[in-house]
Amino acid sequence: MRRNPCGSKCSGGDFLATDGAGQAFRADFELTDHQGMIRRDEDFAGKWLLVFFGFTNCPDICPATLSEVATVMDGLGDGTERVQPIFVSIDPERDTPATLADFVSLFDAGIIGLTGTPDQIAATTRSFFVYSEKDEEEAAPDGYTMSHSSQLFLFDANTEFVKTYEYGTSAEVILTDLRGRIAR
Fold first, then answer.
1. What is the CATH number of the domain that holds 54?
2. Which family does the UniProt entry place this protein in (predicted)?
């Protein structure tokens, strides 16, 4: 049974993308990508970002969301050059760059997988106001699973937060919204 101790805070919605004072935030991270390169938020200046937090052993939410992201990217046509999808692992113990490379390639060649040390991941999840927690579970690989927020973040070409898409938002809805935004 999967616990969700953060309640409605994990379900997505624009309210999640503000800090405690209600201030909008920027994407802010320094992590290692699935090819072993250090990546910072400023590396993606000029691109819209679709950012999702999860883990490669996730049985449901992560593959479903990344499948939707892949469908969005396929539907963007020429717009794909303006959008960068990013998958940030919340499980640095298991999700090495090589593991991430295999995982993201199952969905879309353009998705960049990011990982880091436990401290780097903790700092990144805090900066995005993302909930994650390791849960002991005998039946899971290595005896644990991860509980986590399930929203997909959208940042503009200046890495400024725009909105979140709640888990289960269809690729069609995301694509329509994203096309309208990047066309401006």
1. 3.40.30.10
2. Belongs to the SCO1/2 family.
